[in-house]
Structure formats: structure tokens, C-alpha cells
Amino acid sequence: MGEITNVTEYQAIAKQKLPKMVYDYYASGAEDEWTLAENRNAFSRILFRPRILIDVSRIDMTTTILGFKISMPIMIAPTAMHKMAHPEGEYATARAASAAGTIMTLSSWATSSVEEVASTGPGIRFFQIYVFRDRNIVAQFVRRAERAGFKAIALTVDLPRGGRREADIKNRFTLPPFLTLKNFEGLDLGKMDKADDSGLISYAAGQTDRTLTWKDFKWLQTITSMPILVKGVLTAEDARIAVQNGAAGIIVSNHGARQLDYVPATIMALEEVVKAAQGRVPVFLDGGVRRGTDVFKALALGASGIFIGRPVVFSLAAEGEAGVRKVLQMLREEFELTMALSGCRSLSEITRNHIVTDWDVPRLLPPARL
């Protein structure tokens, strides 16, 4: 297969290796998949304005997220069911994130529990949750994450109902029989039929609460001391409300284009959210990042860091832990090179002036002669 030289190449390998139902689950988006393509394409409408003759012999990519120092502003997004990709699943992902000195966000729909991920060794980890109708389940999740040493909660807010992913409908997607949603094991689930693991996923999906509002966000703050990030914000209006309600940060996300189709690419929504947050909380980008250049563009538009999702499960399917390590390493090296070639020695030197977008007012035009 030759040496893998970029993140995107892992997708084709994953497609060969994985059962169709599993690959389609990871790869597909909602409905026409317009937003799925746009999450990638929108980056191509942002160009660089590199600065030259700056000593870039030393480049510092380190940053601090919610007080935790990490090696680079590239983190792992929550994605469901890693053991469908590889037998080591979230264990491998957690070890790769720790080795890279960055943050892993564990999905509540993981095939490994918070305790199992914690057992892989030290590392900064966040836990993604949905608010379920049964608030007792949420409270149990939060307590377990705290006990397991997780450092923050990412509350996903763009799933009052599941998006229409037609590949999953065609394939009749179910969790493979030898896997289970580990965080739900050992919970007091009341009346659920414990025997049926494939029923677990429809149970979990049916449990997400359509009545979820900001008052539930306030409730979540009362049951944990962990900072809470709001994941799934796409507008200035909601960014302002998130800040007013004490969110520790905002993740600009369209759920990997899996929820509402024809929402903008996250890189297109980012600047509006950053401006609304007014520097009061960090804003992160989730969706479509496949190159170090994408990372730079997000930071130039005001993001404090980015999260990658699909590249993790595709590289995991292709090469297990080594694949995830390689993805993080390739993005790191590409990002470092982009910084050097743009004349930036630290993240604080990356500014809006280092990029030009096709929605910018044309600059540098000589005054018109009458």
C-alpha cells in the first residue's frame, strides 16, 4: 500500500478493511450529505498571507486548554464505538492521545468505559455526554467520569433527535453482536431488557431528551465541579447564551454533518461564534480538519484548538493505535510547517491577518482613480 503520507489516505484503507455497515456508519452524513462535503470544501476558500524573513528556527505549538497544558492545539473529538474499528478500540485511542501529549474526549456511546480508558495510564481526558431522559443516568455518568479522573464534560446539544443518515437506514445499522456500549453497563437502567445488546443502541438513542434546554445545562453544573463545554453551537446567538450560562467553552460543531444537513461548515460558522464569545471563553472547532493547514486556518479565525473525529476511527481501523499516533503526528508536523512558512513562531503569533477569505472586504487595492 506504500507509505501513508497524509490523513485522508486512511479513509480508503478503512473502507477496504471494515464491514460496509460499520464503514458507512462512520463515514456518512445526514440526508444529501451537502454539509459533509462542505465541512471539507469550505477550508479551500481560505487562503494564506504568509509573512517572510522571520526567524522560524524554533516553533512552539504548546497551548493550555481549561488550565491543562498540551503539546499542540489538536485534540480528539468524541466518536462512538471505536471497537467497531479495531479490537482495542478506545484503549488504543487513549494511549495514542497520551503519547501525543493531547486530550482525548471519550464518547458516552463508547465501547470501552470511563474506568477502562482511565486504566490505560495517565492522560488528560474529557467525557462527552448526552442528557438522557433519566437524569439519574446522567448523574451516574458524571460521577463515574469524575472518579476516573476525567477533567471536563463536553455536553452535546445538537441531538434532540437523531439526524437522518440514510446509509444507516439502508444497512439497518446495529451494534455488532460482540460489542456493547460499555458506559451503560452496570448502570441502573430500570426496565431495560439487559439481554439484548443491539437493543441497547436503540434504547440509548431513544433516551436522548427532546425537552433539553438551558435549565438542564444549569442543573448539570450543580452536580459536577468539572468545567462544561457546550458542543454543537453554530450561531452567535447561542454562543452568547452559552457564555451567559457559564459554559467553560464552546465547541463549534455540526456533529460531523450527521444531524441537520445544509448547516454551514463549522469553519464558516467559527468566526461568528468567536466574535460573540468576545474572548470570555475559548472556542474550539470540530469538523472537517484533515490537514495542518486546516488547523492554522481555524486558529487564525479565533479558535483555541480543534478536534478531529473521523480521522481517528479511520486510522484506528487501518493500523490500530499506531494509526491514530500517525494521524496526530502528521497533523502536528503539517501544522508546524504551516506556522513556519507563514512566519509564526507560537500560537499567539497566528492572527487574522495571516489569512484572507472570500468573504473578506477586498484589501490592498489601490484607491480608484476618477
Structural description of this entry:
The chain has helices at 9-17, 20-27, 34-41, 89-100, 114-118, 135-147, 166-171, 197-207, 214-222, 236-244, 266-277, 292-300, 310-342, and strands spanning 46-48, 63-65, 68-70, 74-76, 104-106, 125-129, 152-156, 228-233, 249-252, 283-286, 305-308, 355-357. Helix content is 39%, strand content 12%. The protein starts with 8 loop residues before the first helix and ends in a 13-residue tail after the last strand. The strands form three sheets. It has an eight-stranded parallel β-sheet.
Overall shape: globular
Could you tell me how far the N terminus lies from the C terminus, measured between alpha carbons in angstroms?
Answer: 61 Å
The structural class is alpha/beta
- Tally the beta strands: 12
Mean pLDDT: 93
Lateral strand order in the biggest sheet: 4-11-10-9-8-7-6-5
Radius of gyration: 20 Å
Order of helices and strands: HHHEEEEHEHEHEHHHEHEHEHEHE
Proportion of residues in helical segments: 25-40%
Q: State the helix count.
A: 13
Describe the biggest sheet? 8 strands, parallel
Strand content: 5-15%
Low-confidence segments, given as residue ranges, are none
